Amino acid sequence: MKTPIYLDYHATTPVDPRVLETMLPYFTEKFGNAASRNHSFGWAAEEAVEAAREQVAQVIGASAREVIFTSGATESDNLALVGVAEFYREKGDHIITSPLEHKAVLDTCNMLEQRGFRVTYLDVDRQGMIDLDQLRDSITDKTILVSLMAANNEIGTINPLGRIGAICREKGVLFHTDATQGVGHMPLDVEEMNIDLASYSGHKIYGPKGVGALYVRRRNPRVRLSPIIHGGGHERGMRSGTLNVPGIVGFGRAAEIMRVDYDKEQAHLIELRDRLHQGLARELEQVHLNGHPTERHPGNLNISFAYVEGESLLMGISDIAVSSGSACTSASLEPSYVLRALGVGDELAHSSIRFGIGRFTTIEEVDYTIRRVVEEVSRLRELSPLWEMAQEGIDLSTVKWSAH
Amino acid sequence: MAYSDKVIDHYKNPRNAGSFSKEEENVGTGVVGAPECGDVMKLQIKVENERIVDARFKTFGCGSAIASSSLATEWVKGKTLDEAMTIQNTEIVKELSLPPVKIHCSVLAEDAIKTAIADYRKKQDGSSGGE
Ligand SMILES: Cc1ncc(COP(=O)(O)O)c(C=O)c1O
């Protein structure tokens, strides 16, 4: 086993060697511009892009003509929200989302609010679930779009997309989902689930960075968008700019592997994720799972080790790459907004670690991680005044702290 | 973020980790910070004839917070109470090469020293007054 060990697959994934192999010719021999209509270099590139479009569409049950290539899920989220908001402005000015969305959605909503749109942020429970009745009640005749993610990138909670889609369809509003973490990790079918727009990205599914897609429904209903990037009219005018051919080819191959190996991958992730969870919970007290116990991304394990601050734990297990919701690991010095929105208490947010298991994770790596985390958590608890107080039976919520 | 070697050393080999009994007459205890802010330091001093003869700490917080409090216990040992009162957070920042975002850890360590000394003095006043 080699260290450092990578357990941060929600942040990004390595390119699968099969994907890389597919991409390589498109940097050198087949370097043409897919928009060059008058020679074989362009035709070869266009053909490769169209084959990839089919693969990228299939992984979510869409047809190729409904896929627009972008630079990543951030751009796709921006295009979906701003594009719909601007195009449908006459029809309404109201958008519904949740406080757990990725910043690519939340910051875009914030910008739209400044431009005069109204945004409703649904309540979430402690496991990150929305209330479907509240969603239904929040939709008014001014609502144009509901944007709710497939699987959450921090806590792994999966939204009931089928039921959300049914409500949106019944009420006649568009439904966008940020499916970046969901693709290949949960059932996703734009027809069955009545999804009208979906964002996803290459680098979260063992494809390259800097390439993504936006699914835009073409029939029942036909979704219209105002472009946010203007120029040569590529991608049916919805996203100008020379296509990233090698990236798109890699994204296509990556999506195809996700689709074909879905069951195998799912089983692998769940086995290792549960092994990690059980190993930690067996050897340590006060291990709190963040997110939903069953409706969750198969590779996600987000845990708070009570009385141990997350960044100090990361420092202790520096040969294992994971991430923390602790304030100290963010530039803002605020603990994770996702954990805070769940209302688990800032203290548990500071103590949280996100383990992201992926395709190339092994049992040996999981067992090593259990051993190292148990050692460090035990050591840091011995060093923790909060652990000491808790052992003495003091209820920490009754202590008067000298906040600074 | 990269940590300085000194921070890593204190984190891996904390000095004077542990606790004294709070009840002991000659022990002063300072607990500063709050769990929801992500750091809590407990620093204790043992005093004989106005001089700090021993110290202990426990810290919930990032590596820099642990290192700042560990260093603080080293520095107060052997100092008189008046001398210990003059320890500045900026000296801790310098010794540990803390980056700007970690300055609050050093501030907390300075507060912990001062709070522990105040606690000790209060105890002494209380006991002498009671006799
Ligand atoms: C849920 C979600 N949405 C959007 C993004 C942004 O994706 P990209 O890096 O492709 O812009 C990410 C990745 O950080 C994500 O996890």
How would you explain this protein's 3D organization?
- The complex is a heterodimer of chains A (404) and B (131).
- Chain A is α/β, with parallel strands linked by helices and 404 residues long.
- Helix content of chain A is 38%, strand content 13%.
- The model of chain A has no long low-confidence stretch (mean pLDDT 96).
- Chain B has 131 residues and is α+β, with helices and mostly antiparallel strands.
- A three-stranded antiparallel sheet of chain B has the order 1-2-3.
- In chain B, strand 2 and strand 3 form a beta hairpin.
- The longest helix of chain B has 28 residues.
- Chain B is globular.
- At the A-B interface, helix 9, helix 11 and helix 13 of A face strand 1, strand 2, strand 3, helix 2 and helix 5 of B.
- The complex binds pyridoxal-5'-phosphate (PLP).
- The site of pyridoxal-5'-phosphate has 12 residues of chain A, from helix 3.
Task: Provide the descriptors you would attach to this structure in a database record.
heterodimer, A: 404 residues, alpha/beta, seven-stranded mixed sheet, 13 strands, globular, B: 131 residues, alpha+beta, Sufe protein. Chain: A, three-stranded antiparallel sheet, 5 helices, 3 strands, 48% helix, binds pyridoxal-5'-phosphate
* Largest sheet features of chain A: 7 strands, mixed
CATH class annotation of chain B: Alpha Beta
Count of structural domains of chain B = 1
Low-confidence parts of chain A lasting 5 or more residues at pLDDT below 50?
Answer: none
Alpha-beta content class of chain A: alpha/beta
CATH topology of chain B: Sufe protein. Chain: A
Structural class of chain B: alpha+beta
Terminal CA distance of chain A = 44 Å
Helix content of chain A: 25-40%
Anisotropy-based shape of chain A: globular
**Shape verdict of chain B:** globular
Assembly category: heterodimer
**Could you give a short account of the major beta sheet of chain B?**
3 strands, antiparallel
Helix content of chain B: 40-55%
